[in-house]
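Private note to self, pasted from the team thread so I don't lose it. Backbone tokens:
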């Protein structure tokens, strides 16, 4: 797994993924080479990169975990999908219906969007877009899981 967005929420996502017991944290992307390497050391990843594009280009990264600020979700997710990566994205998957629709029609990867159905205002839009795009959409406990095949 490669983490993009190792600031505020990213380390919490890494902690949660590690608890699964079978995920290898391969790389972390920072805003510069120095910050990427520092974040990688702090989070126990093998490599640190100065951009999300460099992380996506790493052949050892099979899944991109997108924990960037909301305005970057679509950009990072679309780039990862175009490279054939699988994506786990923090909420919201995208800020516009058009970006969500483009994601569902892009690339060979799979995307799972984790959305809190109790407090996320765009959830009806997200779920409606997913269903109208022919993508599986369902709830698991308090999360909306969107799976693109």
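Design output:
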């Amino acid at each position: 797994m490669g983490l993009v967005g190792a600031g505020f929420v990213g380390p919490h996502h890494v902690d949660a993924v590690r608890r699964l017991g079978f995920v290898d944290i391969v790389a972390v992307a920072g805003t510069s080479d120095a910050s990427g390497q520092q974040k990688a050391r702090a989070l126990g990843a093998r490599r640190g990169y100065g951009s999300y594009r460099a992380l996506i280009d790493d052949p050892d990264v099979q899944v991109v975990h997108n924990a960037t600020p909301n305005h970057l979700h679509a950009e990072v997710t679309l780039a990862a999908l175009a490279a054939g990566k699988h994506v786990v994205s923090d909420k919201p998957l995208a800020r516009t219906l058009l970006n969500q629709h483009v994601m569902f029609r892009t690339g060979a990867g799979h995307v799972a969007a984790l959305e809190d159905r109790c407090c996320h205002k765009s959830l009806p839009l997200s779920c409606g877009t997913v269903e109208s795009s022919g993508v599986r959409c369902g709830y698991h406990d308090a999360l909306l899981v969107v799976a693109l095949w």
